[in-house]
Design brief:
This protein is an alpha/beta fold. The protein is built from nine helices and nine strands. Helix 7 packs across helix 8. The structure holds S-adenosylmethionine. S-adenosylmethionine (SAM) binds next to loops.
Length: about 260
């Protein structure tokens, strides 16, 4: 996969792409990420990329010519152009998964008051990373690049378990723990140490449902739920907790309500 990030501020973007998992994926040749300086596509002695907006109103707008020229220079037959824009549809895990299927993304980072509307019309898709306004599209482009890259085959390697992560099935991820078993008086739920894989899977499912029901009930409508999941959600509605449905304590410890947090 190739991702081109078109920006007026390459030095803001490049260091992030050199680190950690994305840096390793690039080195391993799993993804070809290029940072493209928009100014290289501006013409004239001063290589101007922005201008005042017609109709008045404060703030500058990115001119169409350099953005169109950059896209034309970078375009391949598989190219899919994505404009970062707070007015776009929300960027979600499902959008990331769809973009991860593509072979070539050209991500356009706006600046100032945004881009000339004709650039939005030229883009295949616009995305917003949330209902807030940032100073530029560099952070959104990095968010998109990160979320998409880690879904590409081979990128997560042994570290990843993308299919169990938050949003993969429309639910939030269940709690996870590592050593030590006890830290500052807080014990890891005994079920996770039980070796009973079926019970662990049940407990994780109930915890995922519980977390989502409490923190993001809006996700439940689009989640993949079976009849058992729905019965569990009904129990939450009636006032039961995750620990009532699937206790974290083992038989040996008893099923006390306070056995986990
Ligand atoms: N005037 C615009 C508005 O009110 O919608 C905001 C422009 S913003 C200051 C400049 C650029 O940052 C945008 O063109 C876009 O590329 C990027 N940007 C800011 N917030 C964003 C968000 N939530 N999602 C995606 N891109 C964003």
């Amino acid at each position: 996969m190739r991702i081109d990030i078109v920006t007026l501020f390459p030095s803001m973007v490049e260091p992030v792409l050199a680190e950690s998992m994305i840096g390793r994926a690039r080195k391993a040749g799993l993804v070809d990420i290029r940072v493209v300086n928009l100014r290289d596509y501006a013409t004239g002695r001063h290589r101007i990329t922005d201008d005042y907006q017609f109709g008045g109103g404060g703030g500058m707008v990115l001119k169409p010519e350099p953005l169109f020229a950059a896209v034309e220079a970078l375009r391949t037959p598989a190219a899919h152009v994505v404009l970062m824009d707070p007015r776009g549809p929300r960027f979600t895990q499902a959008v990331a998964a769809a973009l991860a299927q593509r072979e070539h993304l050209i991500l356009l980072a706006g600046r100032y008051e945004g881009v000339d509307e004709r650039v939005s019309e030229m883009a295949d898709e616009t995305v917003s990373i949330g209902d807030y306004v940032l100073t530029g599209g560099e952070l959104p482009a990095l968010v998109v690049t990160d979320a998409v890259t880690r879904l590409r085959p081979g990128v997560l390697g042994a570290e990843g378990a993308a299919e169990r992560e938050s949003f993969a099935s429309g639910l939030l991820e269940p709690p996870q723990y590592t050593r030590p078993e006890e830290f500052d008086g807080r014990r890891v739920p005994a079920v996770l140490l039980s070796g009973d894989h079926a019970r662990i899977a049940r407990w994780r499912r109930v915890q995922a449902l519980w977390r989502t029901w409490r923190a993001r009930p809006d996700l439940l409508g689009g989640a993949e739920l079976d009849a058992a999941d729905r019965r569990i959600l009904e129990r939450f509605e009636r006032g039961e907790t995750a620990d009532d449905v699937e206790p974290a304590a083992t038989e040996r410890e008893g099923h006390g309500r306070d056995s986990t947090r």
